[in-house]
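Run ABC transporter permease through structure prediction, thanks.
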Amino acid sequence: MFGYYFKLGVRSLRRNPALTALMVLTLAVGVAASVSTLTILHMMSSDPIPQKSTRLFVPLIDNGPVEGYTPGEDPDDIQISYKDAVNLLKGGQGVRRTALYGVSAPIQPPRADIQPFNLSGLAPSRDFFAMFDVPFIHGQAWTEQDEARGADVVVLSREIAEKLYGDANPVGQRVMLMGFPFTIVGVIDNWMPLPRFYRLNGGVRYGAGEEFFIPFATSIRHELTHNGSMSCSTNSGPGFAARLASECTWITVWFETASAGERADLQAWLDNYAADQRKLGRLKRNAVNRLYDVPEWLVFTKVVGKDSKLQTWLAFGFLALCLVNTIGLLLAKFSVRASEIGVRRALGASRTDIFRQFLIETGVVGLVGGVLGLVLAFGALALISMQGKQTAAVAHMDWQMLFVTFVMSVGAAILAGLLPTWRACQVTPAIQLKSQ
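Sure, done. The structure for ABC transporter permease is below.
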């Protein structure tokens, strides 16, 4: 019977075409508004590295002054100092560990037809590439020996490598970076986690991949200043060496463990490290040492802001308003079919049969509205993506959201059709037959 009722639902679309079109359009607009905002929220809050997100940890050590501190409050910054970063790297915890900070540098292209330009990138230690599953198309990460001596080596992004060398493999070539000849050791493929969880202090959290990578030790040796935020509770003094010796926070450290169960051991080691530092006169706040895995880190750093969540709730409120209008339209449509319902009841159809038929017809309306809503949602996302690279990175729909769109549309239509369908089932056959 489902197939028969479905055919009746398709045929019913031709009845009262203006009323049907108004229902479909109302439902489509509500679905498009809610789905487009939900899609953006889904992309913004998705797990950027699900295969190991519970095995990657970022530590926070509060090294701020005691003055003005309230015990138990959150740290002032989401980064740590250089001295803590170096100590954590030397501690050897986890299967991998990396320290990193954002950098920018001018590059002198090897081609005369390209003018010098600035690159935005990262200065991590070697384990960064394996920790975050960074794909390579040419070469590989620098060696441990390169890192130990702070060698002038660089890994380029695919976009920059193709801009400078075309389709050729540039590994082994030298390029002038910061006025020094750097040897290219690798080229990464397109890699842009959403959000850019490994470095949330740079201001850009979506739609911006790294253009180059140089070793953390090399960046320090060249006294390359950070590209991002920095917090200093006291004056660090002039010069780069004074910054390294200060309590200024401008570096992020990550650990990778073999399993999520090793978190307790890593936390215990971090607490012991902090206790040793207090004996040296540091970490006077005696604050709790924080350890966050990737999902916790995204929540703590408020990657998805309250504004985004509020917009999603408002969009669903608009969908609810559209459903109310759809209910009124369905009541009007079903009311003119009272005589048809009376004849069917008189011929032996039960109320359950009538309910099932009209509910399936409502589902057909929802299906058509879903298709139109999907088209409108794609259009809305296209308009949103034109606002900038960050919005373009999250304003696209995946297969999961495609499925959600149709389920939401059909479900919303069926929900809106419950009352009109129930009212249709209450038609008294005798009264309708007498009126004919």
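Residues 430-434 have pLDDT under 50 and may be disordered.
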